[in-house]
Amino acid sequence: MIEINVDLFTTLFRYYPKGSGSLKVEKGTTAGGLIRKLGIPDGAVSLIFINGKRAMPDQELAENDKVGLFPLVAGG
C-alpha cells in the first residue's frame, strides 16, 4: 500500500467524503484506477494533475503523490 493525497474539485467532491486528504491505495494503482476506486463515472473527469503536472489516466501513482481531479467545466 502507498499513501497519496487526493483533491476533488466542484461536482467530483461528492465521490470522496472528505473532498480532499490522504488515501491509501495499492502499489501500482494508476490515476485511472484511482478514479474507478472512488466510483467516479467514466467521462466525469476531464483533467488529472499529479504533483501539479498534467497527467494521463495510465500514469502510475507513487507514495505521497498529490492528485487533483477536475470535472468537465462549461462556461461562457
Features:
Ubiquitin-like (UB roll), mainly beta
Could you please describe the fold and organization of this structure?
- The protein has 76 residues and is mainly beta.
- The chain has one domain: Ubiquitin-like (UB roll).
- Helices cover 9% and strands 37% of the residues.
- A 5-stranded mixed sheet has the order 2-1-5-3-4, covered by helices on one side.
- The mean pLDDT is 92.
Helix content: under 10%
Task: List the strand order in the largest sheet.
Answer: 2-1-5-3-4
Uncertain stretches: none
Output the number of helix runs: 1
- Give the tally of β-strands: 5
Supply the CATH superfamily name.
Beta-grasp domain
Largest sheet: 5 strands, mixed
CATH topology group: Ubiquitin-like (UB roll)
CATH class: Alpha Beta
The succession of helices and strands, N to C, reads EEHEEE
Mean pLDDT: 92
Tally of separate domains: 1
Backbone structural class: mainly beta
Distance between the termini: 43 Å
In what range is the share of β-strand residues? 35-45%
The CATH architecture designation is Roll
Brief characterization of the structure:
The chain is mostly beta strands and 76 residues long. The protein contains one helix and five strands. The protein has a five-stranded mixed β-sheet with strand order 2-1-5-3-4, covered by helices on one side.
List the helices and strands and how they pair.
Layout: E1 2-8, E2 20-25, H1 31-37, E3 45-50, E4 53-55, E5 66-71
Parallel strand pairs: 1-5
Antiparallel strand pairs: 1-2, 3-4, 3-5
